[in-house]
Design brief:
The protein is an alpha/beta fold. The chain is built from seven helices and nine strands; from the N terminus they run H-E-H-E-E-H-E-E-E-H-E-E-H-E-H-H.
C-alpha cells in the first residue's frame, strides 16, 4: 500500500507541481478501479469514486493531486489494458492454455478490454488537438477511454482463445469453466462492473471506440510475428 501511494499518488503530484511551475503539460493515465463496481450503467467522469482496494485508492490520490495543482493536464481513465508485450491478461491466458487442458476463469466481473496501441493512438490525437488548439473549446481535465465490447473475464478469455487458434498461436481451445469471484480468492477485491462511458471524449475529440475483435486479432497477429 505504501509503495502504491508513493508511485501512483505522490509521484504524479510531484510531476503536476513541477508542470504548474514550469508551464508544462502533464498527460496521465488512471483506471476504472477508482470506482466501486456497483452500477447498472457505464461510469461517467463525474460519478463519485469509491475504490475497493489500495491500487484504486492510490490512483485516485494521483488524480486528485494533479487536479489540485492547477497545471494543464489531461487524465485518461482506462480499463483492462492488454498488449502483445509485458505482463497482461492476454499473454497470461495464452501461457495457461498451453500448460493446462482445463481453465477456471472469473465470469462475474465485467469490463471493456483495451488494446494498448488503441490507447496510444487516442492519446496522440488528444495531445495534438489540445496543444494546437484544434480541439476548440474542449477542456483539459479528466476523460474516459476504453475499447468497445463489454465482456466478462471468461468471455474475454474465450475470445482470446478463438483468435489464438485462428492465427496459429494455439492448436485447440482449452476446456473452460466460468467461476464466481468468491470461488477465485485474491488478495485485493476487484470491481464487478468496470464499463466506462466514453461519450465525453467522443464529443470533445471525435474519438470513437475501437472494436474488441479486430483489436484482439491485430494484437495476436503481432505476437505471431514476434514468434516468427
Amino acid at each position: 500500500r505504501e509503495l502504491a501511494f508513493l508511485l501512483n499518488g505522490d509521484l504524479p503530484g510531484c510531476l503536476a507541481a513541477w508542470a504548474a511551475r514550469s508551464g508544462a503539460v502533464l498527460f496521465h493515465y488512471s483506471t476504472d478501479y477508482v470506482f466501486s463496481g456497483e452500477s447498472n450503467r457505464p461510469w461517467r467522469e463525474q460519478d463519485r469514486p469509491a475504490p475497493l482496494n489500495s491500487y484504486g485508492e492510490s490512483k485516485l490520490a494521483g488524480e486528485e493531486a494533479i487536479a489540485a495543482s492547477a497545471c494543464r493536464h489531461a487524465t485518461i481513465r482506462t480499463s483492462w489494458v492488454y498488449s502483445g508485450h509485458g505482463n497482461n491478461f492476454v499473454l497470461t491466458m495464452l501461457r495457461l492454455a498451453r500448460a493446462r487442458p482445463e481453465l477456471k476463469i472469473v465470469g462475474d466481473q465485467v469490463g471493456c478490454p483495451t488494446w494498448a496501441r488503441n490507447l496510444a493512438r487516442v492519446s496522440d490525437v488528444m495531445i495534438g488537438r489540445l496543444l494546437d488548439g484544434s480541439a476548440g473549446v474542449a477542456p483539459w481535465g479528466l476523460y474516459h477511454y476504453c475499447d468497445g465490447g463489454v465482456v466478462s473475464w471468461f468471455e474475454f478469455a474465450h475470445a482470446i482463445f478463438r483468435t489464438a487458434v485462428k492465427v496459429g498461436l494455439l492448436d485447440k481451445l482449452p476446456v473452460m469453466e466460468a467461476v464466481r469471484s468468491a470461488e477465485y480468492p485474491q488478495k485485493a477485491k476487484r470491481p464487478a462492473y468496470s464499463v466506462l462511458d466514453t461519450s465525453a471524449i467522443q464529443l470533445a475529440f471525435g474519438i470513437e471506440k475501437a472494436g474488441l475483435e479486430e483489436s484482439l486479432l491485430a494484437c495476436l497477429e503481432e505476437v505471431t510475428d514476434d514468434k516468427n
